[in-house]
Amino acid sequence: MEVFADARPVEIEIGCGKGAFLLAYATLHSDTSLLGIERQLRWVRQIEARLARAPLDNVRVLYADAAFVVSRLVRDASVRAYHLYFPDPWWKRRHEKRRFVQGELVHHLFRTLEPGGALYLATDVRERFAAMVGELSRSPFEVTIARQPTPRGRPLTNFERKYQAERRGLYYATFAKPL
């Protein structure tokens, strides 16, 4: 999949929502190409409208199922980082198959990361965090668990801002592909 015409490193936000993190991060990291993948068309349109008012040449947004994109369209070792912040926990048993970090998709995340690349994860759901860490720990990823956002100083997501104000427990981890 060819999305950017330049040689900047690529980072992907999975489930970019309204784009708060995506656009703030892109502004701070003009040397990086950022792709936001979102499955809610209304949020994609909102991000596109914001980009029309304040264009950033290093951002693209894609209306798609991120699992499909990562597993079928992203080339091997082509992504410097994935950002997966506050994914939908899909509470109902019949919806468990929609959870992002599981099974074969872990292999595709690892395959598409460049050596030294990272998957940054944050959630407010302890049970889902434990399940995602367990799933990723069975892969070749190197795991770092933190009680604060990693990397330090990154922009907050809309959910993160809200959950911090509510004083919810937040859980963070970084999964790195060895060099």
Verbal overview:
This protein has helices at 20-28, 41-53, 66-73, 104-112, 126-137, 158-165, and strands at residues 10-14, 33-38, 59-63, 79-85, 113-123, 142-146, 171-176. By secondary structure, the protein is an alpha/beta fold. The chain has one domain: 3-Layer(aba) Sandwich (Rossmann fold). β4, α4 (104-112) and β5 form a beta-alpha-beta unit.
Q: N-to-C SSE series?
A: EHEHEHEHEHEHE
Largest sheet: 7 strands, mixed
By secondary-structure content and strand pairing, the structural class works out as alpha/beta
Number of helices: 6
Number of domains: 1
Indicate the CATH class. Alpha Beta
How large a portion of the residues is in β-strands, by DSSP E?
25-35%
Low-confidence stretches: none
Give the topology, please.
Elements: E1 10-14, H1 20-28, E2 33-38, H2 41-53, E3 59-63, H3 66-73, E4 79-85, H4 104-112, E5 113-123, H5 126-137, E6 142-146, H6 158-165, E7 171-176
Quick take:
33% of the residues lie in helices and 25% in strands. The protein has helices at residues 20-28, 41-53, 66-73, 104-112, 126-137, 158-165; strands spanning 10-14, 33-38, 59-63, 79-85, 113-123, 142-146, 171-176. Strands 3-2-1-4-5-7-6 form a 7-stranded mixed β-sheet, sandwiched between helices.
Q: What labels would you give this structure?
A:
single chain, 179 residues, alpha/beta, Rossmann fold, seven-stranded mixed beta sheet, 6 helices, 25% strand, globular
